[in-house]
Every structure is written in C-alpha cells, then in structure tokens.
Design brief:
Blueprint: H1 5-15, H2 20-24, H3 28-40, H4 46-59
Helix pairs in contact: 1-4, 3-4
Length: 70
C-alpha cells in the first residue's frame, strides 16, 4: 500500500529531529539513529537530525519497499 507524500513531508518538518518520518515509510534503522542522536545528546544535536530530515524530504520518492509515495 502506498504511503502519502504529504504525511511524510509533514512528519519530516514537524518531527524530523526524532526520525518519525523514517518510521512512517519503514526505514526503521535510520529512524532509530535520528531518534538516538536527538535523545542521547539532550537535543543539542537535534539540528543535525532535522537537517537530515529536510534532505530526506527533498530526496525520497519511495518507501522502504520501493513503493512510490503518492
């Protein structure tokens, strides 16, 4: 089943530093890494995770199974 591109973008912008957008499309490993970067640094490096989320938003066209986002 295709995931929504709009939902992915909103999750990335609003909760990108926590990696929630990656969990949504099935990229669990990257979601956990972003979540840990933010939590283990007490939010100090959350800007790094958020920038990573913005890059994801601009470059991702399919979920973890290769199904295009609609």
């Amino acid at each position: 089943m295709s995931k929504s591109k709009v939902a992915f973008v909103l999750l990335g912008v609003l909760l990108g530093s926590l990696g929630i957008h990656n969990f949504y499309i099935g990229r669990t490993k990257q979601g956990v890494i972003q979540l840990l970067i933010t939590l283990l640094t007490g939010g100090v490096l959350s800007i790094v995770s958020w920038i990573w989320a913005l890059v994801d938003i601009c470059t991702i066209n399919a979920d973890a199974n290769g199904v295009p986002l609609s």
